[in-house]
Design brief:
- The protein is an alpha+beta fold and about 240 residues long.
- The protein folds into 2 domains: about 70 residues, no CATH class; about 140 residues, Hotdog Thioesterase (Thiol Ester Dehydrase, Chain A, Roll), CATH 3.10.129.
- Helix content is about 15%, strand content about 30%.
- The chain contains 3 helices and 11 strands.
- Strands 1-3-4-5-2-8-11-10-9-7-6 form an 11-stranded antiparallel sheet.
- A hairpin with a 2-residue loop joins β9 and β10.
- α1 crosses α3.
- The chain is globular, with a radius of gyration of 16 Å.
- It starts with 5 loop residues before the first strand and ends in a 5-residue tail after the last strand.
């Protein structure tokens, strides 16, 4: 398939200050892959400047100058995730989200409490009573839909991102996304009440595995991911 020579990520889609939200960037990079995709993030994806796209035998690579930012390629289908939390459990999770002053990246497009409705996703996934992980309610704003009224795929990838971090301890140890495998099964409509959830898969030193999913309010699976997170090194 043909592909653009460069891709640019708008500054509004930041995660940590000065770089793109990992899930959003992964969704942009995964858009060149037909079907389920795996994205490996090698360096912070830059904002508001061209990212060069090249093809490989496995898929695509993305460069900021000479720095490899990410690679993307086909992936298999993920195993079924846990049953969706209930609406009550998801609301309970939101009530247990860490306080604003404790957030490492409060302007993050996905989970930043400093972002306004329609500007950020404002996904505040906290530990949910009766669910082995974190959860929140999400109602996508119209700004995040395409002309067909459906939430854009890269926005769904973004929504799959941060719940995984909070499921494996982001509030205690800031970390960044290193790898994500995403399966988008169905795009929801903007304004639809959805449930976002994340759960831990493994812990290995500074590396942590997480699963995430987006469900309808009735529990239908719309999208899911498996992720690798790496804790930032603490100052000496």
């Amino acid at each position: 398939m043909t592909h653009p020579e460069t891709i640019e990520i708008d500054a509004r889609y930041n995660g940590p200050p000065g770089s793109a939200n990992g899930g959003y960037a992964a969704g942009v990079f995964a858009a060149l892959v037909d079907g389920p995709a795996e994205v490996n993030l090698r360096a912070p994806p830059p904002l508001d400047r061209p990212i060069r796209v090249t093809t490989t035998a496995q898929g695509f690579e993305f460069f900021d100058g000479d720095t490899l930012v990410a690679s993307s390629g086909p992936a298999g289908f993920l195993p079924p995730p846990p049953d969706a939390p209930t609406t009550e459990q998801a609301l309970n999770g939101r009530s247990h989200f860490p306080p604003e002053e404790a957030h490492a990246f409060p302007t993050c497009f996905v989970c930043g409490p400093h972002r306004k409705v329609g500007d950020g996703l404002r996904l505040f996934t906290g530990p949910a009573d009766g669910f082995d992980g974190v959860a929140d309610i999400w109602v996508p704003a119209p700004e995040f839909a395409g002309d067909d009224g459906l939430v854009r795929p890269e926005i769904l990838w973004a929504a799959l991102d941060c719940p995984g971090a909070f499921a494996v301890g982001f509030d205690g140890s800031p970390m960044v996304l290193a790898r994500i495998v995403g399966n988008i099964h169905e795009l929801p409509k903007a304004g639809e009440t959805l449930i976002a959830a994340g759960w831990p898969l493994f812990h290995d030193g500074r590396k942590h595995g997480a699963g995430t999913a987006i469900y309808t309010e009735g529990g239908k699976l719309l999208a899911q991911s498996e992720q690798l997170w790496v804790e930032l090194k603490r100052p000496a």
